[in-house]
Amino acid sequence: MDKFSINWQRVGIFAGIAILVMIVIEFNARLDELNQLSDEVKPYRAQATQAMQTQAALQTQAAYAGSDAAAEGAARDSHMIQPGDIPVVPFGGENSPPISTPTPAPPPTPQPNWQVWWNLFFGE
């Protein structure tokens, strides 16, 4: 019977190693799933960030639209005046001469190459 005796200490060590290997394999599978889900969530996070930035910009515009400065700016753009302003309407006089634009001088005509060389060597 000594040939087939079971060493319980070795069986326990092998069972512990087998359990540790299974735990490592399961942990690796969970890490892989975490990486996959993290990659899937990135576009949604970008969309959410963009939506929050758009919301903040729209809230800022809405707050400005309800302010007195926006009403005054719209009134000025519509050529309205405030009490105490003096309206000025520019107009051209009937006898004013039209403004003439000066005509540019015509460019000089280029000399032929032989005349350019002649002037360089002999000068005039």
Q: How many DSSP H or I helices?
A: 3
Using DSSP, what is the number of strands?
0
Shape: elongated
Low-confidence stretches: none
Rg over C-alpha atoms, rounded to the nearest angstrom: 45 Å
Distance linking N and C termini? 132 Å
The SSE string, one letter per element, is HHH
Helix content: 55-70%
What is the average per-residue confidence, as pLDDT, rounded to a whole number?
A: 88
What percent of residues are in strands? under 5%
Structural class, judged by helices and strands? Answer: mainly alpha
Q: Could you give a short account of the major beta sheet?
A: none
Report what the structure shows.
This protein has helices at residues 8-65, 68-77, 113-122. It has 124 residues and is mainly α. The chain starts with 7 loop residues before the first helix and ends with a helix. The model has no long low-confidence stretch (mean pLDDT 88).
Strand and helix layout:
Elements: H1 8-65, H2 68-77, H3 113-122
